[in-house]
Structure formats: C-alpha cells, structure tokens
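Protein entry
_____________
===
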Amino acid sequence: MKSVTQVVFAICALLLGGCGHTVVETLRVPQTPTVDAAGNGKTVVVLPFADYSQGDSVASAERRSMMITESITDKLSANGFSLPVQEDVFEYLVAEHVINPVSYTGSASTSLNYELTGDWSNTMKKEISGYLETEKRDSMAAAGAPGAHGLTAATIAKIGREFGADYVVRGRILEFKTRDEGTWEPWKRGVIPFIMRGSNRILFGYADSAEYDEDNASLAGMMVGARVGYETLHWPNDEFMGIGASNDTDAAIWGAAGYGLGGRSAGHAGYIGQASVQMRIWVQEASTGNVIWTNRVSVKVSPESFFADNQYDVLFNQAINQCVNSLIDNFITTGL
C-alpha cells in the first residue's frame, strides 16, 4: 500500500511539474566579431535577391529572398561588417525606382489552395488549378520579365554613397524546391516502403504517372507477399501450416496482403522530403561597380532518419544557412 501511495504522489508531482512551456530556440544571435575580423570598418549593402526558381507566387518569392537576406546579414555581422537596416534599403530602392513593389492577393490564393484539398471532383479541382495558374501568371507578369532588372555602375555607386557602403551584395536564387531524396536506406524510408519500392523498381522500372506507379507497387507487393508468405508458412517442409484450405489459398491471402501494402507504399509512405537550394552571390565594389567576387553553391538537406524533424521550414532554414555560410566564408577567404 505504501508503494502504491508513493507511485501516486510521484505521478501527481510529474503532472504538476509539467505545467510550464517547452521552448525551442534555433536562431542564435551571431557571435561578437573579433578585433581582427575581416569586415571591421567595412559596410555592406545587401540588395533583394532575384528569384529564378520558378516559385508559385510573388509572395513566396519575397519570403525566400527575405530568408536568404536574413541569413546573409547574420553571417556578415558575425565577421565584423556593418549593414544598414534592410527596410531602409528597400524603401530607398523603391523611391529611386530601382525596384517596383507588387501587390499580391495572398488571401485569395490561400482560399483556392485550401479548396484543392477538399472533396471536389477532379474536373472542379482542374478548374480551381486553372484559376491559380492564371493568378500566378498575372502576378509574375506584373513583376517584370526575368533578367530585366540589371543595375548600372552609376546606380551601384549611388547606392553606395547613400549608405556609405564599401560593397554591394547581389544574388539570384536558382533553385528552391522540395524533392524526394534518391536513397534506399531503410532507416530513412522505413522497412515496408524499402521492400515494396525496391521490388517495384526492379520489376517495373520507374514510372512518372502516380497511378501507373501505384499499380506497379501493388503488383510487386502481391508477388513479394505471396512468395514470402508461402516460404514462411511451409518451411522446412511442405506440411500445411497456413490459414487457408490449400497452398494456393495461402499464397492468395498473403499476395492480397502484399498487394495492399504495396499500394500503400506507392503514396507518400517512405517519402523522404529533401530541401534543395541553389544560389549565386556577387559582391561589387560600391565606388566603381566592379565585381570583385562571385560564386555559386547548391545544397540539399534531408532528415538523417524517419525519427528526425522532416518539416520543410527546418530543412530549408538549414539549407539556406549552409549555402550562405559556404559562400560568405569563400568570399572572406578569396575575395577580400
């Protein structure tokens, strides 16, 4: 009885002690630069990045550019560079007609995207997708054609004088997308998807169509299930041990189970979300507009296992930070 009382008190103490909040901090303030930091005494203006990644809207392009700019600001600050407030830079660029802000109807797009997840017919979903594509084309057309936003040396020098900058940083986003990581490691995909998808690929190859791929996976699962079930239930001799009335019945039952598992594995089961980011950065001398350094990097980030956090914001933040760290470190090493 005394032991039971102690257990009850321990449970109550655990419940009362768990009434707070769990705080997860992933973004850290850059460390204080050292006295001999490479950027001490130098000022850099970071311009918004051009987006060539075929994003879905102007709104998402703006968010991507903002995420990259924030990471660059942190990295340059950690190396001793001074930077003006990004909003001040943006306001100046708009006032000087260097860039043109474009309004976007984010709420309308959100509503239409939500409707695509509903129980509409395929015909209705096709119509909704058509409206989304039209809105996307209109918004991108309003933003101007890709490659039509070059800056002259005089414009770069003017920006440099306005903010007392030594360098102007520009760049372009070449790729910003999610993809399925091309790996067959079972601790990433899961055991059943590893078996079923592997058998499907060996037997039928690769299929672009989702329906065709699902049929292939189901058939592969049926074949594997039938064979594995038969061998398992009838080894080491042919004595009947199954749940059916004959060997053929056993094979059919296990084949049906494999068919179901195969069809399940053809969907999102075993999918490994991978964030792929590719970008280029140019650094120009503010006084002359001359390019003193440029480089390009591509980074792909995916979870180490199916237990890891696979949400896209985490993956893309890591991919962006890795891209920026590699590029800025290379600039400091070879460009200054």
Notes: The mean pLDDT is 74. Residues 44-99+149-178+278-301+309-335 form a domain with the Rossmann fold fold (CATH 3.40.50.10610). The CA atoms of residues 102 and 225 lie 56 Å apart.
